[in-house]
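Fold it.
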Amino acid sequence: MNENSLSASQEDYLEMIFFLSREVGKIRPKEIAARMKVRAASVTGALKALADKGLINYVPYGSVTLTERGRGIAGGIAGKHEALLHFFTQVLGIPRDEAEEFACTMEHTIPDHILQRLVGFAEYTEKCPEFTARWQESAMAYFCRVQDPNSPHCDQCGVD
């Protein structure tokens, strides 16, 4: 099983279980419902489906835990979310609430190769004090245009 066989909603539930397990450890369905602002019946249906796929351990009225495979998939989804959130807030300067909404939507559809480029760009801009980075198609990389004409290169990013 890979994450492509999951619906966006199922991915959201897995991601929520992943984050809650890091915060509180033992997770109850009512906590999931409260955090996701959904009805308890919706949570029950989703948990049954995820348990059937072998991604969580769940029995009605009991706690919820991720299986090893579920933890791997949920960790990947959470990683995409965090990378997108970082890019939107730190690179693009989008307010956190708005960035959170877009990250949650995009994490389900963004291809890994595009996400890698966003992550690379974010890392690059954090190193470049001038932040005049531009994508150079011929080099398939980012480069820095130093604004000071007297400066021969950027010491931080190493680009001449």
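The chain has a mean pLDDT of 83.
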